[in-house]
Amino acid sequence: MKEKRRVDFWTIVTCVLALIFLVFLVYPIGGLLKEAFVKDGAFSLDGFAEFFSKKHYYETIGHSTMIGICVTVFSLLIGIPFSYFYTFYNIYNFTTILCALPSEHILIVSPSIRSPSIASSYPFPVLIISR
Asked: Which of 5, 12, 125, 127 would be 71's cystine partner, CB 3.0–4.6 Å?
């Protein structure tokens, strides 16, 4: 005889979160892809051809890629030595000290999201150390 599966709390939570994910992420991205590839009810790549025909647009993509690469490199240059130091040297309550630091005293490596004219003259990440 088959056993009836009992629906528990975590199954319901999982289903609700999956539904929220579908509604707020997958559905809008699907609509965006439809708008990108369908023109007048037929499949078309005209929008992409127009986009890449203008130098301004693909330069912006290049600058954004450069920002992402620079942020990744700087994050690795900061993170790898820090993790090595943290792993091999035992400092009493180091985690507590690190978590208790106010955020304005921590080095932040962040990409700049700016208008294309500014991004073309500023393709590097911003390093902020406040005192």
From this structure: 125
